[in-house]
Design goal:
Elements (H helix, E strand, L loop, with lengths): L18 E6 L2 E7 L4 E7 L4 E6 L3 E15 L2 E6 L3 E4 L5 E4 L5 E8 L9 E2 L5 E2 L1
Parallel strand pairs: 1-10
Antiparallel strand pairs: 1-2, 2-3, 3-9, 4-8, 4-11, 5-6, 5-7, 5-8, 5-9
Length: 128
Amino acid sequence: MATNNPDWVFNLNDESQGIFRNLAEGLNTRIFPGENVMLSFVRIEPNSVGKIHHHPEEQWGILLEGECIRIQADEEVAVKAGDFWQTPGNVSHGIRTGAVGALVVDIFSPPRPEYKQAGAGFGDAKAE
């Protein structure tokens, strides 16, 4: 059995993998782009806010750990680990945490071009 993983096997807990991006204070992500979809593992510290924004790509989110408030269009919904959501392209959305932080995996289709490189901010997303 091989001991080294090929370049197409990743580990959620290996912080050295992926493309690092600081989205906002308390929001950091590691991005894994593919040809047709992109995964973004977002670590959200307690009492942090992801600004309301929109972009043309469809986005699905899965709350892997913690709890948060998911904001979409004019609704705010408390979500817990195991909950997931779908956001069509160009629909305003954001997220915030309270005393407990969160780990979210966002899935984008098609991949967001500006997220294919390390950097800061929400890229070309339009703020609300």
